[in-house]
Amino acid sequence: MHSIGAGDLPAAHRPAQRRALGLLQACHPAPAAAVTAVSTALAAAGGRGPAGSALVALAVLSGQLSVGWCNDRVDLRRDTACGRTDKPLVSGAARPRTVAAAAGCALALCVPLSLANGAAAGAAHLAGVAAAWAYNLGVKRTVLSWLPYALAFALLPALITMALPGGPWPHWWAMAGGALLGVGAHAANVLPDIDDDLAAGVRGLPQRLGAGGARALAAAALLAASALLALGPAGRLGPGALLGLAATAALALAAAAPPRGHRGTGTGTQSRLPFLAALALAAVDVCWLLLRGAALA
């Protein structure tokens, strides 16, 4: 026997399969999965246990799905004008009404799933989700575009710690490190599409700074996050930690360096090196956060 592939499906079923795949693509599955996985690992490292970690995973996943679908629906007009045929709503693989309904359903599920972690922890997470929705709905076009990212990432450790006995707030360095990680992630995320954003009138802080300024902002914020997460907890740094900080400094220099590819959006591999370095630096910051999971509160 052989498995049924897309080409073996009856013709009547293919549009439905295409719509389902388009809906999945419209939720930004890679970032949603990454944030959910990191949050779940952080919950486990922070002492939430299997049941608590599962609740964190469900709450974060529902929030991320709602934000991803909201983003694609709100950006439909801009993506169409820019010819973004890689977007399911632009290509017709997903329907605007379906994506909007999915975003609303995911947000509705996020409320009880967040509050199942405890009232305080749930409220902290819902505040972060609200910040992400505010970004999608208009803050992204203002000089305060960095603020929703800072709030959402700063509040993520609170979802972990405030569900523990006594409901403690995370240490200041954990929230500040998370906020800096969010700002750096925002600046890095803008880099590949900065020209399209400017053409569409999206003038968040990184766009106003220009490509060079956005690279510098990403590098500085992510390097500061690394230093804070490494130095914030009490105790001396071992050789491994010092080596990690040296590696983050090297990555920050690479992220801030001007690309050597073509001008504008760039098409050469070299033009993507600062962006890739910023992503690597963000990944290092996430590792620092996970390593400090047991000391968040």
Characterize the main sheet.
Answer: none
Total domains, how many?
A: 2
The overall pLDDT, averaged over residues, is 87
CA distance, first residue to last residue: 55 Å
Question: What proportion of the residues is helical, as a percent range?
Answer: over 70%
Count of DSSP H/I helices: 13
Q: What fraction strand?
A: under 5%
3D shape: globular
Q: How many β-strands, per DSSP?
A: 0
Cα-atom radius of gyration: 20 Å
The class by helix and strand makeup works out as mainly alpha
Q: Write the element-wise H/E pattern from the N-terminal end onward.
A: HHHHHHHHHHHHH
Give start-end ranges of low-pLDDT stretches: 1-9, 262-270
Please explain how this structure is put together.
- By secondary structure, the protein is mainly α.
- It folds into two domains: about 15-140, no CATH class; about 170-295, Four Helix Bundle (Hemerythrin (Met), subunit A).
- Helix content is about 70%, strand content about 0%.
- It has helices spanning about 15-25, 30-45, 50-75, 75-80, 90, 95-115, 120-135, 145-160, 170-190, 195-200, 205-230, 240-255, 275-290.
- The longest helix is centred in the last third of the chain and has 27 residues, at about 205-230.
- The protein is globular and about 55 Å long.
- The model is unreliable at about 1-10 and about 260-270 (pLDDT under 50).
